[in-house]
Amino acid sequence: MTTQSPAVSPLEAHLGYWLRFVSNHISHAFSRKLFARDVTVAEWVFLRELYERDAVAPSELATRLGMTRGAISKLTDRLAAKSLLERTAGGNDRRYQSLTLTRSGRALVPKLAQLADENDEEFFGHLPRTERRMIENSMKEIARRRDLKTIPIE
Amino acid sequence: MTTQSPAVSPLEAHLGYWLRFVSNHISHAFSRKLFARDVTVAEWVFLRELYERDAVAPSELATRLGMTRGAISKLTDRLAAKSLLERTAGGNDRRYQSLTLTRSGRALVPKLAQLADENDEEFFGHLPRTERRMIENSMKEIARRRDLKTIPIE
DNA sequence: TATTGTTATACTCTATAACTATA
DNA sequence: TATAGTTATAGAGTATAACAATA
């Protein structure tokens, strides 16, 4: 040993380490799949949200996704440049915009969702259903206890 | 409903979603704790690795942490500027450097490790030991099956 | 020629804050 | 004055690639 050191818990002693380890690999694998469709993970979450509830104002999306309005603005630029969504002037209050998926944007989401399904299956498909459900319930319980709200992007 | 759409699996249908959701919150909580010590998560992993095996070459660290040599170089700059580590000219092969923790760097690591312990306890402390071990084993099994190697930073 | 470490560039995300148009 | 959206700036990551020094 080169230096005398007090005992310190190793990185691998933490459950958070293992969660992050696996979670990051899953996200990267997913982002590689999305790359073939020229979409980032943040863009996927954005598109999926618009698919669910169309004609949303940027500020509402910012709240829902836990991002700043500036970040939403930049994401909107990129997605509009790819012709996946459109900005529309709002209704009565002319400060508000309305974000809507284009036809091609709407057509893309189910394909991306399938990539998400495949990715999940790749990593968890071998686990027994009960074990998967147990892990999912543990995560939901942590989210509930700590009152976690915003959707994770990274 | 504003638009007719084919059924698409929601984000929350994926176990990967919940893992990322919780994992990102855990990391952010940890990074807020580290912030009080003026250290980022990437710097923590870096310091923890040097604590374990001192006098490592940057290129070896890059391999071990799954980062590029450029990224290691930048991190080394920052940590050296904080006087937490030192670059030393190598031995026979003068291309190699040797990275070593300073006295203050070595003194800091146990304090950061305690923050990591506290963070893990905050999020998982309420779970029964058997459940914690089960999740940890599931994650390790996924890492083993998929041959995952690099340490996660984000 | 190959390798080590540095540097430059570009990209995606983060955050804060200034700015405009509108209410 | 407050709010919606844009823009600018800075920082922490990622990646690729060029480069000097050394082997």
Any overview of this molecule?
Two copies of one chain form a homodimer. Chain A is mainly α and 154 residues long. Chain A has helices at residues 15-35, 41-52, 58-65, 69-81, 103-124, 129-146, and strands at residues 85-89, 97-101. The first copy, chain A, has six helices and two strands. In chain A, strands 1-2 form a two-stranded antiparallel sheet. In chain A, helix 2 (41-52) packs across helix 5 (103-124) and helix 3 packs across helix 4. The model of chain A has no long low-confidence stretch (mean pLDDT 92). At the A-B interface, helix 1, helix 2, helix 5 and helix 6 of A face helix 1, helix 2, helix 5 and helix 6 of B. The structure holds a DNA duplex (23 and 23 nucleotides).
List its traits:
homodimer; 154 residues; mainly alpha; two-stranded antiparallel sheet; 6 helices; 2 strands; DNA-binding
Which helices and strands appear, and what pairs or packs with what?
Two copies of one chain form a homodimer.
Chain A: H1 15-35, H2 41-52, H3 58-65, H4 69-81, E1 85-89, E2 97-101, H5 103-124, H6 129-146
Antiparallel strand pairs in A: 1-2
Helix pairs in contact in A: 1-5, 2-5, 3-4
The structure holds a DNA duplex (23 and 23 nucleotides).
Uncertain ranges of chain A: none
Q: Could you say which structural class the secondary elements and strand pairing of chain A correspond to? A: mainly alpha
Oligomerization status of the protein chains: homodimer
The portion of residues forming beta strands of chain A comes to 5-15%
Question: Biggest sheet of chain A, strands in spatial order?
Answer: 1-2
Q: Figure out the total of helices of chain A.
A: 6
Shape estimate of chain A? globular
